[in-house]
Design goal:
Mean pLDDT: 89
CATH architecture of the largest domain: Beta Barrel
Helix content: 10-25%
Largest sheet: 14 strands, antiparallel, barrel
Protein name: DUF560 domain-containing protein
CATH class of the largest domain: Mainly Beta
Number of domains: 2
Shape: globular
InterPro entries: Slam_C, TPR-like_helical_dom_sf
CATH topology of the largest domain: Porin
Strand content: over 45%
Number of strands: 16
Low-confidence stretches: 1-10
């Protein structure tokens, strides 16, 4: 409570005194709004949400002020969080109306994220010094061993929405993401252009169909490119849960490795549940199939991922993500004579403060550990990274 009114809190407050102080500050914010002093009211409301993130009234009024001031992305965040709150029917209808208006009125949407990511194993290479082929041991040279380094991570996208009718819109845009290093051999970038039709098929159902074209660059050279097609649906299950399904197929060619050419099909299910204004839970299950020309490069994959986001009093939000992926190839590798099968685990801890801005970007710290076990020695690795990111939506 000290951040709200230091002069009134010379000694620790009991619960009753703390609640009374919060109510006093909330009434002061309301009075400032009536006096047409929104900047001062917003400052108080932001401190109130930090001090008592579970209180819907503070968050709802802050969202309204942010929306009036044109800060739509932050207003949208608070309205989404309120889906997990205990609201009156009138307030819940108001929140849903605001979210619908924000979604329908936004013609351009974009995001930008970049960060420095020190890693223990930049190229995700094996930690072994030797490998065995045909019963003979071979010593790996220094260039093939794991090494530490720092990369620049980036992700950016811009989308244009065109309303075709009251329930149908056209969406097109481009996005890119990747890692860039001083040693260009490790550079990995993806570029994607898309066009999609989106239709509101019911009060709680949105469906979309789209086309995309993907280009992936490794070491600054084209690695894979090709068109794709997808069909997706987003369904509201109750007041706070959203189920997303997506089916996609990409037809990829590889200029320097034609044996990898072929179609990749994927099916994914995602669940997002806003358990409370401060707690969000996510789950994902996906399957994919790669039909490459070379049987040793064709195979099946599956992924299970879980995540949570918890906001705490004081303004800090903690995120925890964990995933397990299995990949199995159809035929033995030509060099090792073994059928490749990988099991990859990843765990990430994220720390964020949504009220803090650096050059109008929200900062985030991410600690990630990734490990792959494989039947092929060269494919196994461990990598730990510490990412320092700045991101924004607009």
């Amino acid at each position: 409570m000290l951040a709200i009114a230091p002069a009134q809190a010379q000694q620790p407050l009991n619960r009753g005194e703390a609640v009374a102080l919060l109510r006093t500050e909330f009434a002061r914010a309301q009075a400032l709004l009536e006096a047409r002093r929104p900047d001062e009211a917003r400052a108080i409301l932001e401190r109130l949400v930090i001090a008592a993130p579970e209180t819907p009234a503070f968050r709802l009024l802050l969202a309204e002020v942010l929306l009036r001031q044109g800060v739509a992305d932050r207003a949208r965040f608070h309205y989404h969080a309120l889906r997990g709150a205990q609201l009156s029917p009138a307030d819940r209808a108001h929140v849903e109306a605001r979210l619908a208006a924000l979604a329908g009125g936004k013609r351009w949407a974009g995001h930008l994220s970049f960060g420095l990511v020190p890693q223990s194993n930049v190229g995700k290479r094996t930690a072994d010094d030797t490998i065995t082929i045909g019963g003979i041991d071979f010593q790996l040279d220094e260039a093939s061993k794991a090494r530490s380094g720092t990369g620049l991570s980036f992700s950016a996208g811009l989308t244009r929405r065109v309303v075709l009718s009251h329930d149908t819109l056209l969406r097109f845009g481009a996005q890119g993401s990747g890692f860039v290093y001083a040693d260009r051999r490790f550079n990995d970038m993806r570029l994607n252009a898309l066009v999609a039709l989106e239709r509101q098929a019911g009060q709680n159902l949105t469906v979309e169909m789209g086309l995309n074209h993907t280009l992936r660059l490794l070491a600054d050279r084209p690695y894979a490119r090709g068109p794709g097609l997808w069909l997706a649906a987003r369904t509201r299950l109750g007041r706070a849960t959203v189920l997303t399904t997506r089916a996609q197929v990409d037809w990829l060619t590889h200029p320097d490795a034609p044996g990898l050419d072929g179609a990749r099909q994927g099916l994914s299910l995602g669940l997002h549940h806003q358990a409370s204004p401060t707690l969000a839970l996510t789950a994902q299950l996906s399957f994919d199939r790669t039909d490459a020309r070379q049987p040793a490069q064709a195979g099946d994959g599956a992924l299970v991922a879980l995540g949570l986001r918890q906001a705490f009093a004081g303004g800090v939000t903690v995120g925890l993500d964990a995933s397990l992926r299995r990949d199995a190839r159809d035929a033995p590798d030509g060099l090792f004579g073994l059928r490749r099968e990988d099991h990859t685990t990843s765990v990430a801890l994220k720390l964020m403060r949504r009220d803090l801005r650096i050059f109008n970007h929200a900062p985030m710290i991410e600690i990630r550990h990734e490990q792959r076990r494989s039947t092929l020695p060269l494919a196994a690795f461990r990598n730990t990274s510490l990412g320092l990111y700045l991101s924004r939506e607009f």
